[in-house]
Here is the input.
Amino acid sequence: MQTKPAKGMDRRSFIKTAALGAAAVGLGAGLPGVARAEPFKLPPLPWAENALEPYISARTISFHYGKHHAGYVRKLNAAIKGTPWASKSLEEIIKGSYNKDDYLFNNAAQVWNHTFYWNSLKPGGGGRPSGDLAAAMATVFGSVDACKEHLLNASAKRFGSGWGWLCIKDGKLLVASSANALNPIVDGMKPLLTIDVWEHAYYLDYQNRRGDYLKGVMDHLINWDFAARNLAS
Ligand code: MN
Here is the structure.
C-alpha cells in the first residue's frame, strides 16, 4: 500500500491516498442518467426522497436535489444558451471549461457530480462489495475495510466543501478527494463512486458532524454495485 500526503493543496487539488494495480479501465464512459439533451435536464432520483432515512432525511434530499442540484442545472443551461457550449456534452463542457471559465465549469461539474452521487447511494446499501471491485480494493489497500477507511478519511479531511471519490486512473484504483466542484475526469480519472461532503449534504441532519454523516453513508447507503458496474464498464 502506498500513501501520499496532501501536496499542492490549492482549491483544485486532489489528494490521492493510494494507488496501485487494478483492472485497466478507459476514460470517457458516459454518465448514467445524464443523456445529452438541450437544455440539460435534472435527472430523476434513483429512489424516493425518503428512501435514505434515517441516515439522510427526505428534507435534506428535497433541498439538496430540488434546490441545489436543480439550481446547478438551471444555471448551466442559462450559461450555455446561445453559446458554442450548447452543442457540447456535459463531459465536454466540464473538460473544456476547466481553468478557462470557472462559473461554467463549477455549474457543469456540480450537475455531473450530483447525478453521480445519487447513484452512489441506495437504501439498503453499505456492507461490502464483492467480485473484481473487492479484489481491487484488497490488492491496493490491503483489505476492503482498509479501502473503506481511506475513503472515509479522505472525505472527512477534505477541508471545506468538496467530494470524496473512488476512482481508476491509469488502470489503478485510488481514493481521492476534491475541492468544491472539481471532478476527477479533468485529471484523467474514471470515477467509480462519490460522496458529497458539502455542508448542504448533511447539515440539516447532522449539523457539523460530518463524520456521523459519513458513517451513515458508508455503513448503510453506499452503492457498491454502482461502483462495480463503473469498474466493469
Ligand atoms: Mn451537494
